[in-house]
Amino acid sequence: MSDRGGTIGLVPPDERRLWPSPPALLELLKPITWFAPIWAFGCGVACAGGPGARGWGVVAIGAALSGPLACGTSQAVNDWYDRHVDAINEPNRPIPSGRVPGHWGLGIAIGWTILTAAVACLLGTPVIIATAIGLVLAWIYSAPPIRLKRNGWWSNLAVGISYEGLPWFAGAAVCLRAMPSASVILVALIYSLGAHGIMTLNDFKSIVGDRQMGIASLPARLGPDRACRLACLTMASAQVLIVVLLLVWRMPIHAGIVAALLAAQLVLMLRLLADPRGRAPWYNATGTTLYVLGMLVTAFALAP
Prior knowledge:
By secondary structure, this protein is mostly helical. It has one domain. Helices cover 73% and strands 0% of the residues. It has 13 helices and no strands. Helix 8 (182-202) packs antiparallel against helix 11 and helix 11 (224-248) packs parallel to helix 13. The protein is globular and about 60 Å long. Residues 1-9 have low confidence and may be disordered.
């Protein structure tokens, strides 16, 4: 049941606000999630050999586009359309807690989308294309009638592409002032597919709420054990393919480093598989770090 301001009956009437507080607005954009796309953007810069004549100022704008703007938009959109689920899983989130009241959450999502598109226009056609794809994915991921997040297979793919592939592509395009090479696009795509597993582990925290609300995230759909095995297989397979490509491209040192990082992840995965639900956050803080370090090693391998 909706109240007059549009917040879905989650906050007692005497605790409702008229205006969101600045800390709540920042929390709505989830700064902690900006790291992944900014890192991927940095990998794109690295594989292009650095900013070149464009300078670091343009790179800084691109990093802001990837993190606070594009990723921030996706978080605002997701929190608005997930406010019912968050009331179960994370009732302290800005919207269900009432710290971002009424329709402010939707307004911020729309405004941030417009700002993101405007900034992308400063960085050239390839970046505009990548940003447009990312914004479309951000909205169809959360908003009905499509709401990709209801299906863990498609939702994880959309997030992996948005967080890894598109920023990587944009970083290379900004520095090159042109479309990246086929090898750069291929590597970015492979790491995006591998990130499908990272997103699966991220969904372990919301199994209860997802099941109650009919959201078929993979942990809710397959159960923790099967979802964990799938996540590990997905992440490892992507990196094996990267190692093979680096060997084919005659980059044995970089291939060896990525392989070593993968071997360390496999050791961590064994511990994760013993307690998927309890150790998923731990693995996202350890094994995922090794995964993204491999991304950077691969980016340096592709640099001219």
